[in-house]
Design brief:
- The chain is globular.
- By secondary structure, it is α+β, with helices and mostly antiparallel strands.
- It contains four helices and nine strands, in the order ααβββββββαββα.
- It has helices at 2-24, 49-56, 195-198, 226-233; strands at residues 77-83, 88-91, 98-109, 121-131, 147-151, 157-159, 185-193, 202-206, 212-216.
């Protein structure tokens, strides 16, 4: 009787110890282990936002963006296409001041003071430039992101001063440098173009903030200063 009692006590002790071990560390048999999450390619641009946030938001390398959070976007554009004579507010060189730019006259010429174009025609556009704030301002430099271009009907962009157009100098339209508040100046932009490039083009100015402003140009001489520009060019008719 004593032997059975001892054996029974021993069995109870073993069962108790096994139960304690299950409570302290062993998982319950009735609760299956959680499945491991499948691997996610964080560089996959087709991932949904919720899935990316759940799996990739902590990626220090910027997963999903190629490790680079910057965006090489094109300069912002003024979506309005203006016409000859429209004044447009633009940011001055390096972001300083505000310049009102007003292209006023366009002239198509076969020569300028005896110089012929390298292509077919010189196109000259006069521009009135006026600061509109208390700060002096200068137009953006073509050495940076700014300057003037002629956009041909096929979309080709041609820089002011290219070809032989650098030889086009107008005495009454040749201002340069910083413009002081309360004043305005007259300048001119010249282009050396083929006949096809000149027909129905668009004048483009990129200001000191990288914004592109556009004016649709007439296909023939137009504006209040045509006679004055032709005199400066020493052209006839």
């Amino acid at each position: 009787m004593r032997t059975r009692t001892a054996a029974g006590a021993a069995l109870l002790l073993v069962a108790a110890l096994a139960g304690c071990g299950a409570e302290e560390g062993a998982p319950k048999a009735t609760k299956p282990p959680a499945k491991a999450s499948p691997s996610v390619d964080c560089s996959d641009e087709s991932l949904g936002q919720a899935e990316w946030v759940e799996n990739c938001a902590g990626d220090s390398e910027g997963a999903g963006t190629g490790g680079d959070s910057t965006d090489d976007a094109a300069p912002p554009a003024d979506e309005t296409v203006h016409v000859l004579g429209d004044p447009v507010l633009t940011v001055g060189d390096e972001g300083a001041g505000v310049l009102e730019m007003t292209p006023t006259t366009v002239v198509f010429a076969k020569k300028s003071d005896g110089n012929a174009p390298a292509k077919d025609v010189f196109v000259v556009v006069t521009v009135k430039k006026r600061p509109t704030t208390a700060a002096p301002a200068d137009e953006s430099s073509p050495m940076g992101p700014g300057g003037w271009q002629w956009k041909a009907p096929d979309g080709q962009a041609l820089d002011e001063g290219d070809g032989e157009s650098y030889n086009v100098v107008l005495g009454d339209f040749s201002a340069s440098g910083t413009i002081q508040p309360g004043s305005f100046v007259w300048d001119a932009e010249a282009f050396d173009l083929t006949a096809a490039q000149a027909k129905g083009g668009t004048l483009v100015y990129v200001d000191g903030e990288g914004t592109a402003h556009q004016w649709k140009m007439p296909e023939e001489d137009a504006g209040p200063q045509v006679a004055e520009v032709k005199k400066d060019l020493s052209t006839v008719g």
